[in-house]
Specification:
Blueprint lengths: L4 E2 L6 H12 L4 H10 L6 H9 L4 E2 H10 L4 H5 L2
Helix pairs in contact: 1-3
């Protein structure tokens, strides 16, 4: 399976939005990762921390899973 990585060239907008939306849903990082793994999304808590900090690129499958688990939209995740 081809893994597409998304580079956030706008200053970690995606990572900050994931964190903001996750916190607004009162969900911890461990809980989010657990839900993603139940959907067969390959992610660890350490990877999520790096994504939220803008240290690691997010994979398309991870972004799709986060969108689904957090019941949000791509627009909210990618909005500045």
């Amino acid at each position: 399976m081809l893994q597409v990585k998304i580079k956030d060239d706008a200053g970690n907008i995606v990572g900050r939005n994931i964190r903001k939306i996750r916190k607004s849903r009162h969900m911890g990082q461990t809980a989010l990762v657990r839900e993603l793994q139940l959907l067969d999304v390959d992610i660890t808590r350490e990877a999520l921390v790096k994504i939220e900090r803008g240290i690691q690129h997010i994979q398309l499958t991870q972004l799709r899973g986060i969108r689904d688990v957090l019941h949000t939209t791509y627009e909210e995740l990618l909005d500045k």
